[in-house]
Amino acid sequence: MKILLTGAGGMLGKALAPCLEDRGHTVIGLPREELDVTNYQQVMDILTAAGPDLVIHAAAYTRVDQAESEPDLAYLINGYGTENIALVCAKLDRPMLYVSTDYVFDGEQNRPYTPWERCRPLSIYGKSKLAGEKAVQRHLKRFFVVRTSWLYGPHGRNFVNTILDISRQRKPIRVVSDQIGTPTCTLSLSECIADLIASERWGVYHATDGGVTTWYEFAREILRGTNIEVEPIATKDFPRPATRPKYSVLDKTTLIHTIGREVTPWEESLRGYLELMATSQPV
Ligand SMILES: NC(=O)c1ccc[n+]([C@@H]2O[C@H](COP(=O)([O-])OP(=O)(O)OC[C@H]3O[C@@H](n4cnc5c(N)ncnc54)[C@H](OP(=O)(O)O)[C@@H]3O)[C@@H](O)[C@H]2O)c1
Q1: What number of other Cβ atoms are within 10 A of residue 282's Cβ?
Q2: Which residue, among 225, 213, 239, 217, has the nearest Cα to 173 in the 3D structure?
Q3: Minimum mean pLDDT among 31-40, 138-147, 160-169: which range?
Q4: What's the pLDDT tens digit per position in 183-200?
Q5: Which of 9, 59, 17, 6 has its CA nearest to residue 190?
Q6: What are the sequence ranges of the domains in the chain?
Q7: Cβ neighbours for 55, distance < 8 A, ≥ 6 positions apart
Q8: Which end of the chain has the smaller Cβ count within 10 Å, N or C?
Q9: Is there a catalytic annotation at residue 125?
Q10: Which run of H or E residues covers position 82?
C-alpha cells in the first residue's frame, strides 16, 4: 500500500514508518512542518496529490497537562485537525487509521475497557482526542480507531527515559502507585498496527502491550537489576493540572482475534527497548 502518515516527526510516527516499510509498504511520512493538519486546504492539496491507499493519522496535541490551560489549541489539533483528515479521506474515498488514547475513559471501572464501552474523558486532552474519534466515525465507513496507552519508544521524551535520567542524577524517585494501566512500546504497537491494516476489518480497536501494572511498578521494572529505590506515592500527593483515569487497562480481545496473535507482554517489550537503548544512540 501507499500509506500517508501524519505526525511522522513524533515518537510513534518515527517507529511506524520503518515498520510499515519493512512490510513492503510505501510510506509518505509528513512531519508537522510539511503537513499542518489544522490547515484544511493544505490537507486537501497534499492528500489529493499523494493519492494514498490509506492515511495513518498519528499527529496530535499530546501535552496532557498543558492542554488544561490551552484547550482551544488541543481541540483545534485533535478535534478539528482530525476532522480535516477524515473529511478529505471521505472526499477521496480513502480509509483512515486514527490513533487514540486510554484517556477517553474515566477509569472508574475495575475491569479492562472494551472498545465499545462508554467514553467519559476526565481531561481536556482526553476530550479533544474523543472529538477526533467522533469526527472519524462521522465521516468514514472505512476507518480504524486504535486506542493505546502509556507509550514510550526510541524517538521521544517518555517515562522510561525520564526515570533513567533521574536515576543517573541520583535524585529521589517518587512515582504514583495508584494509577493502573499498561505501558506500551511504540515498536510493538507499530507491529500491531501493521497487522491490523492488513486485515481491512474496520472499527474501533484497543492496542497495547499485554499485562497490567502501575506507574510505580513500571519504574521499578525499568530500574530492575540496580539498587536504586523507587518511592511509591499517591496521586493526591502529586497534583497535576490534568486528571488521569485511575484504571485504564484496555481489553484487546478484538485486536487479538483480528490479527490472529497475542500481544507482547509489557515486561518483554520493555526489556527489548532497554537492550536497544543500551546498544544504540537514541535519535
Ligand atoms: N504518548 C502517549 O503516551 C500516548 C498514549 C496514548 C495515545 N497516544 C496517541 O498516540 C499518537 C502518537 O503520539 P506520540 O506519543 O507519538 O506523540 P508526539 O511524539 O507528541 O507526536 C505527535 C506529533 O504530532 C505533531 N503535531 C502536533 N500538532 C500538529 C499539527 N497541527 N499538524 C501536524 N502535526 C502536528 C507533533 O509535532 P510537534 O512536536 O512539532 O508539536 C508531533 O511530532 C497520538 O495520537 C497520541 O494522542 C499517545
Answers
A1: 10
A2: 217
A3: 160-169
A4: 999 999 999 999 999 999
A5: 17
A6: 2-156+183-209+248-264
A7: 3, 4, 5, 6, 47, 85, 89, 94, 95, 96, 97
A8: C
A9: yes
A10: helix 82-92
Q: Are 271 and 152 in contact (CB under 8 A)?
A: no
pLDDT tens column, 218-259: 999 999 989 899 999 999 999 999 999 999 999 999 999 999
Identify the residue whose cell numbers are 493540572.
Answer: 241
The SS3 assignment for 147 reads strand
Q: Which residues line ligand 1 (CB under 6 A)?
A: 6-7, 9-13, 32, 35-38, 58-62, 77, 81, 99, 101, 129, 148-151, 156
Pocket perturbation via mutation, ligand 1, pick of 41, 62, 192, 193 by most ligand atoms within 8 A of CB: 62
How far is it, in rounded angstroms, from Cα 267 to Cα 217? 11
Q: Which CATH class is domain 2-156+183-209+248-264?
A: alpha beta
Question: Has this prediction a pTM greater than 0.90?
Answer: yes
Predicted local distance difference test score (pLDDT) of residue 182: 98
Grid cell at residue 130: 474523543
Please give the Cα distance from 15 to 224 (Å, whole number): 25
pLDDT for residue 281: 61
Model confidence pLDDT, tens digit, residues 64-121: 999 999 999 999 999 999 999 999 999 999 999 999 999 999 999 989 999 999 999 9
The CA 187 to ligand 1 mean position distance, Å, reads 15
Cβ atoms of residues 222 and 163 within 8 Å: yes
First-to-last CA distance in the chain? 27
